[in-house]
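anyone seen this seq b4? input:
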Amino acid sequence: MKLTKTGWEDIDALFSEVERVHNELEVIREECKDILYPSGKKKPDNPDVEKLLVRSA
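predicted toks r here
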């Protein structure tokens, strides 16, 4: 019986890569949050203000 490659291995590898990159992004977000909002500085309630702060950083 000959096995053919169905592509599922490639899809699993892509999902694995996505999960790894997502985890790295979460670490970077936490580091940026610590820089932008050090202890004692309140994070803005308006999400648009947060976007502006990120762009200006």
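DSSP finds two helices and no strands in the chain. The longest helix spans residues 8-36. kinda curious what u guys think
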